[in-house]
Amino acid sequence: MESFTTFPLSSGNHSSRTNSTCSRDNVLKTVVFPVLYSFLFLVGLTLNGVAVWVFFRIPSKSHFIIYLKNIVVADVIMTLTFPFKVLSDSNIGSTGLRIFVCRVSSVLFYLTMYISILFFGLISIDRCRKTLKPFRGTNAARLARRKVLSGAIWTFQLILCLPNVFLTSKTPKSPYFKCSELKSDAGLYWHEVVNYACQVVFWSNLVTVVVCYTLITKELYRSYSRTKSQGTGATICKASSGGTIRKPGQAKRKMSANVFLVLAVFFVCFVPFHFARVPYTISQTHVVMFDCKLKLFFFQLKESTLFLSSSNSLLDPLIYFFLCKSFRTTLFKTLKLPHGTCSRLLKRGSDTDTDSTPMRDSSVCT
């Protein structure tokens, strides 16, 4: 969780203006990002509201659905923090609101970010397992264990992050303050502990995602090579009704794009921020090594990549739609769309459940 956010409460003195210029009170922070986050809030709240509405109608019959339900809850909470960031960064909000952002809103934002990262890691493991062991099913005991694991993740993150709320208890002494100035000594220490823990969470899950998708890629390549050697790689035959039926080779190529959607969202949303925050943190803790312009550059880089992390709440619904057939089916039935809409949108020859493994049909939510 960042503690270096600064809030200019007034511009009544020269030193505040000077610090403001050096400390990021600029158009990018006060105008551009508030507009972008307002867009994220409106669209994200709509999409995630629909996702919650649909998932309440889907039973938790697989590990994948359990993980997706947890992600959608995290996304909704993250989305609800955006208005506070907009008001704070644009200098519209009151002093009390800006203190609230330091104590509560930003803590919830980072809490949900790392919960999403953890569940992305679990989804990657699940997709890898389904690829390498396609015929291994699930049962009530395994589902119960995944629910317990999900609860443990939320509990761990809450225990880790909530002290930041209670230990950010000081009153700002000047009209221009950093969130870190609101923390007690214990709060600063705990904040450092949380930062290290979050780094461990991210990097361990990054390794997990890379390893899992490397194994998935190898298995897909082996499967494609076997199919190609049998001469069935890209054959399309005519059905008795005059339509076309795609052979397994085509289905696997279409599946590949869908399976790697999780990997793409993870790398777009979370990787840039964690690489950018390293030089940013150094520029904040070793002030003498960096001049004003360089510190401003690292701040803007961090804020830009943080926006990418926030866009996770907008991109996750794509995962629900393209990787979860139960989600699509329930959505279309609820909206009373005509039969075959799902097939046309996905450009597939059929919308029937063929198998519960990503090797056969990645659109099946298993």
Automatic annotation (TrEMBL):
G-protein coupled receptors family 1 profile domain location: 47-320
Domain of life assignment: Eukaryota
PROSITE patterns, A to Z: G_PROTEIN_RECEP_F1_2
UniProt-listed GO biological process terms: microglial cell activation; regulation of primitive erythrocyte differentiation
Region (Disordered): 1-21
Pfam family of the protein (one): 7tm_1
Main location: membrane
Subcellular compartments: Cell membrane
GO terms under cellular component: plasma membrane
UniProt keyword annotations, A-Z: Cell membrane, G-protein coupled receptor, Glycoprotein, Membrane, Receptor, Transducer, Transmembrane, Transmembrane helix
Bilayer topology annotation: Multi-pass membrane protein
InterPro entries in UniProt: GPCR_Rhodpsn (IPR000276), GPCR_Rhodpsn_7TM (IPR017452)
Name of the protein this chain belongs to: Purinergic receptor P2Y12
